[in-house]
Amino acid sequence: MAKLNQKDQARRNQSQAISSYQVNRQSKGVCRETFNPAVNRIPGLYNVNCVLEVATLPGCDVMAYDHFNLTAPMRTQYLQSQFEALETLFKEDLRCEEFTEFGMPIQDCVRLVGRVINVSTEDATLNQDCVGLFNLGDDNGTNKYRVKLNLTEVRQYSVYEGEVVVAEGFNDSNSKFNVNRLHKLKVRPPTQLCDQ
Length: 196
Known about the structure:
- This protein is α+β, with helices and mostly antiparallel strands.
- It has 3 helices and 7 strands, in the order H-E-E-H-E-E-E-E-E-H.
- It has helices at 6-17, 72-94, 190-195; strands at 20-23, 50-53, 110-118, 131-136, 144-150, 164-171, 176-183.
- The strands form 2 sheets. The protein has a 5-stranded mixed barrel.
- The longest helix is centred in the middle third of the chain and has 23 residues, at 72-94.
């Protein structure tokens, strides 16, 4: 049998460590309905301990992530770290060093990066009149910024709430951002995403 080098041995140990993942609710409260109601389920199998097989891509780190017991600051910190990773990928795609901060009184063409949100005060669906961008401020996340987007000059676009995009355009005196172009992240192979 051939000897494994240190890197291969570490990967093997990691894959053995996470090959099975025990899910046990214990005293976490009532079971939450997380399944699609259209999917058929076998009755009588609720709150049963089960083993999930976890498959990983080579070279990717897997962290245990207990999403049922997160506090609001922990959720914000996690979302901000994901946002920063996407922001780095956008910088590579667009070959720029940084994006303009929200609310800066600059009259030149600028690029803003943020999550798409619905800025309507009513509980309406996302449409051309209520699309906005949201971004947390500095590292401690105390400042939150949002800006309404004017998409009349963009010929074709498709966005959804929560999507991270780069809007290129000009600031308006009416606290709107006139968008000339919307940039989305280029599709990458999964191995390149793990390297980031």
